[in-house]
Amino acid sequence: MATAALLSLMVALDACVIVTSLQAIVVDLELSTYDGFWIGTAYLLANAVLMLFIADLSHVFGRRPCLTISVAFFSLGTVFCCISHSIGLMLVGRSFQGVGGAGIIVLCLLIFTDIVPLRFRPTWYGLVQAAWALGNCVGPILGGVIAQNTTWRWVFYIMFPFCAAGLVLVPWLVNLVSIDPPADAMSERLRKMDWLGNALFIGSATLLLVAISWGGLRYSWSSAGTLVPLSLGAVGTALTMIYESRFATSPFLRRRLFQTASSTATYICGAIQGLVMYGQLYYVPLYFMDVKGFTPIQTGVALFPVMFTLVPASIITGRLVTVSNNYQWSIWVGWTLATVASGLMLLWDADTPSKVWAPTLVLLGLGHGSILNAQNMASHALCAEGDEAIAAAMYAFLRQFGMALGVGVGGSTFQNVMLLKLERDGLASSDAYGGTHAIAAMLSASTDAALQSKILDAYVYGLRGVYGLYVGVSGAAFLMSLFIKSVSLNKGLRSEHRVHATAVGHNSIEFGVSGAAFLMSLFIKSVSLNKGLRSEHRVHATAVGHNSIE
């Protein structure tokens, strides 16, 4: 569990740390704003589209080898990002990190479905989800602090201790074996894999995400540059569904996962939470830095209300779901709070005091924290017996797919709404196409107070468009959540894998803890012990004191 939590924290940090450090990367590498946009999107795109494929591979090669390779991919991508001096190598590195992150997220979840009964899963996996949520909250803070005080490359350097720990701990701690090892040879199992279905799905999902990500940014929504990949992606998705349901001998997409209204609503709500939560964690820091004029450190402090409510809410609701044997209430409460908080964001402007935005962020953290764990477990409870691993992978994929949409759709909404405001105010509409960072640069460069006021108003107007989008989809998710039925979590554990107890396995925890302690000890600096004695007390010399030695 500790290894899964550590790796989940790492991939969440990597996804969000780029938010507040992106401008420093763009300036140092002399990139366009559009290039900078793809530094974040490349990670999310690779992360989303490969998740189900990696889950499918783990049924053939096993969880531990696939998780180890995923950590290795992430580590290699981190190296590329650290040494990059061009957009090409940076995008390669971010894509490698995305591939590794996809495997880490889905395999950590699958391992829990393998070894933890459903009734106790909300409690224990809640801790892993909390680590993931913590990374999402701390990432923008850490990125801003690094960008303000040192080189942006430290955004990636800080990943190396996590990578080293993962490469050491996973082979030793994740000790799973198949309960019924397949009789087929490895070559036969590889031949039976659904290669065509996976290829169709990956290609279609990539085209859809690319089209949605650059629609309204690089190309207008009505241009061939957007419509062609969007249409091809939609057609490819339809062909994938037809192939998987009628022709695939070992389909990786199971139609029975979506046979009930409850399970379908759960998966859709998972995608919406990914879109809303990641989008808000991306655009809220921009509000504080560009509208309120906060420094990155001040922005980090401003995000404390989210961080200190989202993580505890996830842990506490996980425990309460286990005790009550009911997840329905947590989902309903969570979406209610998230929708209300998104609505309150529409009131934010340059003069909004902390007594307004801080309670809003508290509600936001409580809302997403309540949803995060309970909704995930609902997908496990609502599936047919024996399908929990497949259901878990599908839910994880759809949430990541929503996260990839969150930034792209949010960016397109922001620019189009701001474009409308700029045109109304008689300003050059081309200013909107530079993105949030370009507009922020215009604000700091302008000396005309009236022009600054108009640009700032347009910026706030654009952000309100994004928040309005999140209100709408959050409200839709709340209505859909009403269709999620509550079923008992008391299901027997059916899994293809079990923990393999060996001499190495029995000592793995001690090895892992010792290895982690060794890595931490490398940060302990050596200083001289020649320090003077400073104390609040001294020996009191009395008659008794003089004779005390005797």
Automatic annotation (TrEMBL):
It holds the Pfam family MFS_1. GO terms for cellular component: plasma membrane. Keywords: Membrane, Signal, Transmembrane, Transmembrane helix. SUPFAM superfamilies: MFS general substrate transporter. The chain crosses the membrane at residues 37-55, 67-92, 98-118, 130-148, 154-174, 195-215, 221-243, 264-285, 297-317, 329-350, 461-484, 504-524. It is a multi-pass membrane protein. Residues 1-489 form the Major facilitator superfamily (MFS) profile domain. It is found in: Membrane. The keyword Metal-binding does not apply. Residues 1-24 form the signal peptide. GO terms for molecular function: transmembrane transporter activity. The keyword Signal applies. This is Efflux pump FUS6. It comes from Colletotrichum sidae. The gene is FUS6-1.
